[in-house]
Amino acid sequence: MCGIFAVIGLTGDPLHNRKRVYGLSKRIRHRGPDSYKMDVSIKEDGKQTYMVHKRLSIVAPGPSGEQPLYTDASHDTTFIANGEIYNHGHLREKYNIVSENKSDCQVIGHLYEQNGPEFIRELDGMFAFVIEDRKTGTIMAGRDHMGKIPCYIAYGKDGSVWFSSEMKTLVDDPGIAKYEIFPPGHYYIREKGETEGKMVRWYDPKWVTDVEYIPDRKADYTELRETVVDAVKNRLMADVPYAVLLSGGLDSSLITSIAVRHKKESKNTFGADEPVHSFSIGIKGAPDLIAARKVADALGTVHHEIHFTPEEALDALPDIVWHLETFEQVRASVPMYLLSRAIKSYGFKMVLSGEGADELFGGYLYFHKAPSAAEFHKECARKTTRLHQWDVLRANKSTMAWGIEVRTPLLSQQVCDYAMNTDPEQKMIRMNETDEDGHPFLEKYLLRKAFDTPDQPYLPDEVLWRQKEQFSDGVGYDWVDGLQDYANKMVSDEQFANREQRFPLNPPTTKEYYLLREIFEEHFVTGMENGDCAYATCPFGKSIACSTPEAVAWDPEWEKSVGDISGRAVKNVHVAGDKFDLKKDGAGKDTKSSAKEKKPAEAASVMAIIGGHAGVRGSVAVKAAKGPVKSGARALGGRGRAAVKSRFVGLRAVRASAVAFA
User: Model-level pTM?
Assistant: First the structure.
C-alpha cells in the first residue's frame, strides 16, 4: 500500500512544475512514509509527465521493491501502483516475467505490454495504477473491482490528466478544471492525439451490471468456506509484521480464526511460526472489548486492548474528516483511526479486517425488515457496489492516516462473486425458524453455517451465533451519544433552523451532520474554485442502521424519521433498540420540512453512478439528470464535458451539481 500521484501532459515551466507537483504530493506523505521517488519526463513538445510514489513497504522492502516501475532500461513503459497483487507469483510464471524488481506490482507493466489494457482482468488484489506508454503515447489507469484502493482523476485546464490516491492533492490547484472519483472496476485509456480518454468497465459480473438480476444458485457451505479461507490465506502475503483487527463480532473473529489456523500454509508470509497478534479498541467496558477478549483467549492470539475516551475521539474529528475526505463514516472512523496509531507504535505495518460480509450477506440489522428475497438481493448489491464511498473508504483512509495497510479478504473477487450469485432466499432472516441444529436463521446465516464445523470449530458457538453490533456502537455507546451531545452544544438551534440557507444541497437533518458538513467544507469547499467537485464525491441520503436511502422505504416509521446509522435504530431487533430515540423528521425545527430534504427514492437519485446500472450505484458525480446510464466505455474529458457548475461563496454552498458521465 502506498500513495501515488501522477500528472501527464502538464504544460509550463518544468522547474516550477516539479516544485508544484512535489508540494501537492506531500499531502499524501502519510500513505508512504518509507520512501519517496519521482519520475519526470519532458516530451519534444514541452509537455511533461510527473509520476510520484510514496511508499509503504510491505512486500520486498528496500531497493528491490522501489517505484516508479519500468519494464526495462528504456523506460518506454513507466508506471506507478498502489496496492497488492496477490497472484503476482503465478502471473510471473505464466507470462515468463523476469525482473530485478521484486515488487508484486511489477507484473502490471509487463502484462500491459503483452496483453493490452484488458490484462487488468487477470489481477487478483487491491490496486490503483497509472501507466504511461512512452513508445505509443497511450495513457492507462485502473482501479480494483471494489475500489478498496482510493483513486481520483482530474482534468487540467491545459488538457493534462491527473491521478491521485487522495482528493486533497487536487482541491486547490489553479490548473485543475475539475476532479472526481475514479470509478471502481474500471480502467481509463487515452490514445496518443486524443483530447479525451474513456472509462471502460472491466469488472462486469451480472450482479453488478444488471439491476434486475436475481440469482437462483444454491450455496454449498463447503465451497463458501473454502473460498473465504483461500481469500484470507492469499492476503497473508507480507515481508513485514502484521496483525488482525478483532472486534469480537462474527466477521473479524472469523478472519482472526482463519489466520491463526492457516498461517503456516500461506505463501510468502512473515513469521509463519509466530503467534498472531490481535487488536481491539473501545471505551472501557464496551461490548466489543469484552467480546474480543473472549475470542482472543479462545484462539490464542497475542491480544492488545486499546482504550479511548469520548473526549479524545472528539479531539480527532477535524483530522478524521481531513483524512476521510467525506462527512460520512465518521462514527466508525474515529476509533479505527485511534487504533491505527496504536498499532503503528507496536511496529506493525499491515492488518486484516472483516469489512464486506454485512453487505454481501445482509448482516445489518435493518435487513430483518427486507420485504422480499429479491429486494434483499438488490439491497446487498446496492450496498456492495457503493462500498468505495463507505466502509472501504473508511477502512483504507483511517488506517493509512498512520501508514497502516488494511486488507479485506471478504471483499476478494472470488468471495464477492460467490456471495452475490447465491439465491437470496438463503440469506433471508427468519428469526422464528431454526435449522436442524437449532440455530435461528439470523443475519449472515450462510456465512455462520459455512463455518459451523463442530469437529474442528473455527469459533465458539456464542461468537459464531452472536448478533450483529455495528462497530461505532460496539466500541461503546458513550462515543455515539457523546458525539451527538457535542454537536448539540456546538450547533445552536438558530443555526440548525437556518440550515437550508447554510447547506442548500441536501440540508443535514441532524446537528451531528451539520457539524460534520461544516468541518468538511472548511477542508475542501470554502474558497475552493472546485468546491462543487468535493461535494460530488460524497453520498447523500437518509440511512437507518447503515441502510441505503432506498431501503428506508421498507418501514413507514423509518421514512418519517431523520435517520440514524446506529444499529439501535432498528427497534424490536437490536437488544438496546427499545431505548434508542430515533427522532422524527422535522424534530427541533421551527419551519416546515424543507422540500430539499428528499424522500429516500429522491435522495437516492442524487447519488452517483459508477456505470452499468441506471440509478444509484455509488457517487462519481452528483446526478443532475434522470434516466439510464449506458454501460461499457464512456467518453471522459476535461473542459469539454457537459456539466452544471457553480461556485461556493464563503461558507455557503450556492449550488453543487454535475452530470455524471453523460
Answer: 0.88
